[in-house]
Amino acid sequence: MRRLLLAALVCLATPAAAQEADRTVTGEITGADHQTYKAIPFDVPAGVERITVRLTYDKANKTVVDLGVFDPERFRGWSGGTRDRFALSASDATPGYLPGALPAGRWHVQFGIPNARKDARSSYRVEIFFDRGAVRNASTAIADAPLKAGPGWYRGDLHMHNAHSDGSCDSQSGKRVPCPLYRTAEAAAQAGLDFIAVTDHNTSSHFSALRELQPWYDKMLLIPGAEITTFGGHANIFGQSRWVDFRVGSPTVPDIAALQKDVAAAGAILSVNHPALPSGEACMGCGWVWPGTDWSKVTAIEAINGLTTQPPLAGLDFWYDKLNRGYRITGIGSSDNHDPAAGPGKAPIGRPATIVHANALSQPAILDGIRAGNVFIDVEGTRDRMLEVTVASGKARAAMGETVTAPAATLSVEARITGVTAGTVQLIANGKEHARTPLAPAASFSLPRAAACGWIAVNVLGPEDRKLLIGNPVYIQCKATPRR
Q1: Mapping DSSP to helix (H, G, I), strand (E, B) and coil, where does residue 370 land?
Q2: Domain range holding 312?
Q3: Tally of CB atoms within 10 A around 424
Q4: Which of 74, 119, 332, 430 is most buried by a 10 A CB count?
Q5: CA angle 300, 417, 315 (to 5 degrees)
């Protein structure tokens, strides 16, 4: 599961210029093309899921080219001279372009040439890239560079809703209305988050809006997601390249295995939401009860949900049970926000927050970081609390999400904690408290090999044992190879 194909819907670090296009058309604009339209045909094969078009041309003599595209049947978009590249798919498109089915056949890039001097001879190059199956050339060609390069800890919220599903807020006159996506994004930015995943129920309609907003939010990564809402449980998927059919139990998605297979095919990772909630009229289908769930294909579990942070509704024990059964699943926390204003009794965006150690602030890096498991949950969604855990066995050292193999007779655990002024540090071994110590910036424990085998984790508790920081496991492999 941790090696699922990742579709780079928003950000990818690979430079697009290094790619080889699926189709390339070259030519020349001359003075005869002044104030005319020029069609640049190209063929799209069956099975294409995304198309990216990239234009380069010689501007030295003041030649100007406006850009658009038509599919075999209709107009699909226009950006004039604003853009030199655009992308279209069934789920989303570059602003100015229309998402929808990508029919096979003869397409054409449409040039509008408002200016070409009489003696102009301007060469042009049109490159077309396709996503087909596991090949994601189009996604890579449209991708941006990371918002921030280099490894570090990045704070985010992985569960929220807006007008594209059931998010609502007060209008200018105080009426309750579906809440526009920009309000959600702005609330997240004001909360100081580095990334958010927008997870509207069962839809991908918000993907194009995210593409429109991302250039403005050049300090905060916007990850496309969806809350797959079924009769037997809810799960978020992150980073999908297209819509995923949620209708488990229907002819198109006969069982949960079919859903999990399609999530992987769409390049996404899957995280089970608020799994311990009771299902009923108060929250229909909210608790996870699907038989046949392949937990080896589940990347994360929402151990803490902002709307249900207190036992028995939290998913912490549910997550620990899966860890005890040998599944290496990352624990995350999310607000499940439905109103960016978040008045009394509502979960504000960023509370709780998931803090991910990633190689960069980009979609692939954040999703890889969640897979890798060097992650902790800041239950109160502060801006500065930190938890770094290291387990040492002889000369070997491992961080959260990593594995210690053939451990020594005694293991040492060090937790570096910042941003917490009072409390207790708790050592968890295989789901049970093994020890605790008063809060210190560098808290340490030692435990025997027999107690450590399986997994160990560190939590930070506040007064009255209120959960403040929830750490992910370090895995201790004493004999058999784990399932994941």
Answers
A1: helix
A2: 148-383
A3: 17
A4: 332
A5: 30
Same domain? For 327 and 376 the reply is: yes
171 Cβ neighbours under 8 A, 6+ residues apart: 177
Q: Do 445 and 341 sit in the same domain of this protein?
A: no
Rounded-to-integer distance, Cα 403 and Cα 397, Å: 9
Paired strand residues for 176? 170
pLDDT at 283: 83
Burial class (CB in 10 A: 0-12, 13-18, 19+), 7: buried
Measured CA to CA, the distance from residue 138 to residue 110 in angstroms comes to 19
Q: What is the pLDDT of residues 439-456, one digit of tens each?
A: 999 999 999 999 999 999
Report residue 193 as tokens. Answer: 């988050």
Q: Give dist(CA 211, CA 305) in Å, integer.
A: 27
Q: What band does 346 get if pLDDT is binned at 50, 70 and 90?
A: confident
CA distances from 439 to 82, 124, 212, 374, 381 (A): 55, 64, 45, 21, 19
Judge whether 7 lies within some domain. Answer: no
Q: Is residue 297 part of a domain?
A: yes
Do residues 8 and 23 make contact, with C-beta atoms less than 8 angstroms apart? no
Domain annotation covers residue 414: yes
Examine residue 96 and state whether it is found in any structural domain, yes or no.
Answer: yes
The per-residue pLDDT for 207 is: 96
Q: According to the model, what pLDDT value does residue 18 have?
A: 57
Q: What are phi and psi of 352, to 5 degrees?
A: -75, 170
Give this prediction's pTM: 0.92
Q: Which two tokens stand for residue 1?
A: 């599961």
Of the candidates 367, 296, 374, 295, which has an alpha carbon nearest to the alpha carbon of residue 6?
367
Nearest 5°: CA angle at 386, between 383 and 387? 155
Helices 181-190 & 206-213 angle (0-180, nearest 10): 50
Count of other CB atoms within 10 angstroms of residue 325: 10
Q: In what order do the strands lie in the sheet containing 105-115?
A: 36-44, 105-115, 64-70, 75-80
CATH number, domain of 167, equals: 3.20.20.140
Residue 129 and residue 163 share a domain = no
Q: How far apart are CA 290 and CA 300, in angstroms?
A: 16
DSSP 125-189: EEEEEEEETTEEHHHHHHPBPPSEEEEEEEEEE--B--TTTT-EEE-TTS-EEEPPHHHHHHHHH
Residue 270 in tokens:
């899957």
Number of H helices, E strands in the chain: 7, 30
Question: Into how many domains does the chain fold?
Answer: 3
